[in-house]
Amino acid sequence: MNTTYVCGHRNPDTDSIVSAMAYAALCNMLGENGYVAARLGQMNDESSFLLKRFGFQPPMLLSTVRTQISDIDFDRPPLIGPSIPVSHAWEILQENPNISALPVTNEDGTLYGMVTAGGIAESDMRSIQTPLIDHAPVFNVLSALEGHIINCHDDVFDFLSGEVVIALPTASEALTGIHQGAVVLCGQQPDVVEKALAEKAGCIILCQSNLAEKYRGLSSSTCIIATPYDAWRAARMLYQATPVSRIAKADGLVCFHLDDYLDDVRDTVLQSRYRSYPVLDRDNKVIGTLSRYHLLRPKRKQVVLVDHNEKGQSVPGLDQATLVGIIDHHRLGDVQTGYPVFMRNEPVGSTTTIVATMFQEHGLMPGEKLAGLMAAAIVSDTVMFKSPTTTSRDRRIAERLARIAGLNLEQLGRDVFSASSAEKPAATLLTTDFKEFHLADHRLGISQITTMDSAAMLRRKDEFLAEMKKMQEDKHYDMVLLMITDVLREGTELVFLGDREILRQAFGLGEIGESNVFLQGVVSRKKQMVPALALLWG
Questions:
Q1: Which of 30, 167, 251, 381 is 20 to 30 A from residue 390's alpha carbon, by CA?
Q2: Within 10 Å of residue 335's Cβ, how many Cβ atoms?
Q3: Of all residues in the chain, what percent carry a pLDDT higher than 90?
Q4: Residue 374, phi then psi, degrees to nearest 5
Q5: Is the pLDDT of residue 362 over 80?
Q6: pLDDT for 510 beyond 90
Q7: Those residues with Cβ within 8 angstroms of residue 173's Cβ, 6 or more apart along the chain or in another chain
Q8: Residue 425: half-sphere exposure toward Cβ, Cα within 13 Å
Q9: What dotted CATH number matches 4-67+301-416?
Q10: DSSP 8-state code for residue 526
């Protein structure tokens, strides 16, 4: 099931958080499963208070929607252990022709190495030039040869090592090459067996021979194995009884993790020559392999934007995601797509109002707790219906949601605007609800704190100005503004850093203070503050 992230803007306010949660809930109720609410930053005190009050967990924190390894359909081949015989690895590769390499894993699932068909073929070719086996587990040998040990039961053999000698009848002496520790393959040749026993060969492999009955139960330091294979096939299978760990590439491997970004992975792949790369999870356990062709058409994350439609306010990596829709009540921004998307942009006071309207249009009703949370979001974004962006629909929808939740709307409003903490550091208060704007050639940042006691906030003006100065220097803003919006006074104490003549002209003011001025009736950043400056700056 594909996940679609529903996210508001950075430095999220209550409307941004709640509209994302409500829209995700609506889509899932309609059977469009996989919608997940997300946030792009830490929640403010108001949002935290309201979610806790109505019994909701915060949405997941989404740092980026850049395409990651976890977003693509990489291969998930069988995982094999280091002790598995080479023959078994070869069989798996032959049964899965689309897989170019098999991950070899330790007992805890972490990566040991990678084995390829080319690596197995190379090892097989080396065995022709150097016919020996080294410390091959007896169990692997018996499995590869489909054989069994005929020694006395008290004889114990764990590993086989030695030069491989095929002692078949020839015109010359067949016993040449038999020496201590050798692995001797023979047929119906008692003289070869006796010679090998006398020389204390490491192993005798009886190939399609009835001599097994003669030597069955013999106690000897030489391991005697009977196999139904002929000598040529037995020799080839003997080399493939080697543990796959002996031929697996374990040094200098290039690995990727699920959360690695695809553009970074692509750069790494272009600089290397491997055909397949192991993919690890957060615990460094192998879960699959990645090949170059997986990078050609990656699957993108799906995103719905709520309460904004500007890239500068949206989730990082948006250009690498598939934008599914936009639900907003702000001016049209700079988000562009190469394909049609669902978009609903309405001139109302809160994005949550639009989402609540969509509930009604589908004949659905949010649950009691969600209805209460949505009502609180509308009250918050409309500043208790005092914002100039407020419409009759905002009030009507909020009243309906409050009835569903069994709440008094006026009391809910007082609770909402009493939730912020004036004791927090000035930097935290300044950045909690902060937005950046580009008007003509001017760059400005506007922060807003909504409170029921602006006087208490204004007493910290010097702290705010110090932080605003740092922000201006770091981001090269032409102007930094802090709106301390007072719900009871129905206006804003504006703390500013920049040319005060601009503010005087924009709002038609007389003489103003050096760093602050009260703007009666100004409570909206997007409807009053930004348009006034945009009109002045063109």
A1: 30
A2: 20
A3: 51
A4: -65, -40
A5: yes
A6: no
A7: none
A8: 6
A9: 3.90.1640.10
A10: I
Phi, psi (degrees; rounded to nearest 5) at 133: -120, 150
- Beta strands 479-486; 491-497: pairing state: antiparallel
Alpha helices in 390-460, H assignment, sequence order: 392-405, 409-416, 426-432, 454-458
Distance, CA of 394 to CA of 356 (rounded, Å): 10
Strands (E), 340-426: 342-345
CA distance 463 to 37: 35
Confidence of residue 172 (pLDDT cuts 50, 70, 90): low
- Taking alpha carbons only, the member of 128, 399, 124, 423 closest to residue 244 is 124
Q: Which backbone phi and psi does 51 adopt, to 5 degrees? A: -65, -40
* Residues whose CB is less than 8 angstroms from the CB of residue 525 and which lie 6 or more positions away in sequence, other chains included: 435, 446, 448, 483
- The 3-state DSSP class for residue 409 equals helix
Cα Rg, the chain, nearest whole Å: 37
pTM > 0.70: no
Q: What is the DSSP letter of 440?
A: T
Q: What gap in Å lies between CA 452 and CA 36, rounded to an integer?
A: 34
Domain residue extents for the chain: 4-67+301-416, 426-537
Token code pair at residue 96: 């899965």
For residue 514, which phi and psi values (nearest 5 degrees)? -70, -30
* Strands ordered across the beta sheet of 223-227: 132-137, 159-166, 183-186, 203-207, 223-227, 148-149
Averaged pLDDT, 426-445: 86
Residue type, 154: D
Distance CA 44, CA 433 (A): 8
DSSP string covering 174-234: TTTT--TT-EEEESS-HHHHHHHHHTT-SEEEEES-TTHHHHTT---SSEEEEESS-HHHH
Distance, in Å, from the CA atom of 66 to the CA atom of 263, rounded to the nearest integer, reads 9
Residues 22-26, mean pLDDT to the nearest whole number: 97
Give yes or no for residue 171 having a pLDDT over 60: no
Is residue 289 within 8 Å of residue 276, measured between CB atoms?
yes
Q: Which of 507, 497, 504, 509 is nearest to 467 (CA)?
A: 497
d(CA 170, CA 244): 35
Provide the CA 93 distance to its chain's centre, in angstroms.
Answer: 29
Helix intervals (H) in 442-512 = 454-458, 461-475, 500-506
335 Cα distance to chain centroid: 24
Structural fold of domain 426-537: Diaminopimelate Epimerase; Chain A, domain 1 (3.10.310)
Alpha-carbon span 140 to 88, nearest angstrom: 10
φ, ψ for residue 175 (rounded to 5)?
A: -90, 0
Q: What is the DSSP string of 193-207?
A: HHHHHHTT-SEEEEE
Q: How far apart are CA 73 and CA 87, in angstroms?
A: 28
Token code pair at residue 414: 């007082």
